[in-house]
Amino acid sequence: MKIYNTMSKSKEDFIPLEEGKVKMYVCGPTVYNYIHIGNARPMIVFDTVRRYFEYKGYDVNFVSNFTDVDDKIIKKANEEGVTADEISKRYIAECKKDMEGMNIEPATKNPLATEEIGGMIDMISTLIEKGYAYEKNGTVYYRTRKFEGYGKLSHKNLDDLQSGGRALLVTGEDEKEDPLDFVLWKPKKEGEPAWQSPWGEGRPGWHIECSEMSKKYLGEQIDIHAGGEDLIFPHHENEIAQSEAANGKTFAKYWMHNGFLNIDNRKMSKSLGNFFTVREISEKYDLQVLRFFMLSAHYRSPLNFSAELMEAAGNGLERIVTSSGNLKFLMENAGTDRMTEAETELFAQTDRFKENFEKAMEDDFNTADAIAAIFDFVKFINTNTDGNSSKEYLEKLHDRLATLADVLGIIVDRDEEMLDEEIEALIEERQTARKNRDFARADQIREELLAKGIVLEDTREGVKWRRA
Q: How far is CA 143 from the centre of its chain?
């Protein structure tokens, strides 16, 4: 298996720190509102990475945090006249609903920044003791230049940052030893939540939380650290500086970053009016379609979101779901149980689809090519099954399709809806009318069912129905 490592700018063979295990940390959202579709991309991408590791038999410890103390959360709380804790709890719950809708597996641990303050204080204290940090009037800064490897992830030069890095400067910048130093702890302001520390009441900077939570729940060294490419600098760069200075060890072996998401070929922003939350998307599309869309391109490539592309994703997903439904229908009506010799040979041919799927995923998780392999498999299924197929053959095809789709988090089996007795009776009556060549009554029943939102489809396998 090869993974593109942002640190080395190349694909590297994946060799875990501990055989058979993967320790993976993914930066989670700041919970001050509903998550947007830009948040959804890393959630879906790295959930899929995790699923593939599990498919290959790895024991995955997957940690993803919620930033539940932040300027944006405090601003939202002040606007509503409630506490920051109320805002963060509300939107953590809403985020989890959206994640469930996108079929994202629950993390092994979702740590909250506010519950890990003590550990952050300990790490900051260690950095001060080692000379990597210093305190000025209640603010603790990190000495960026003291860490020799600073810039190795983002491939930025400190001198270039010095000349063009005004964005790094914060309140209290005049007290810094160096303009490039960043904040580890900030003093309390009126109306803000605060915690006691050796440097007075205050709260941690953003970067320190991930360094501490990764260490606590995964250890001083981890296999994979991941997130959106917007986090490479300064967030992940600062995490490396903090963690490696405090722990004296390489922080993460592999750094993975997904590409940006654009809306109709423009950067998503509220000012442009093209900002969409996952909740808003769910009102127009099944979130399985959003997931399928997100995986239709390689995770490192920029991805353009548009109504046309979502419709195309919906159609592609429908091909897979329909094929699964056809298999289940045939299974229920199969005349024979055991596979024939010819079916055994046919099923053996499907190994190539599984192999192509795995080959794509082993090459830096190329989900676009993995989906192509599933489409090839679906075409094979549709061509090589009919009403004479055995139940065993159909079941094996269905299991293989469901297994491959599940690696991508795609659910191929829709929940079966029960028809009420009246509709069931009408379908049965229509079948009887057709046998008696009473086609006028059969057509009348079809129209009655359509009025009730039931569409009938006469196929070679028999009568099927779906909701209109």
A: 34
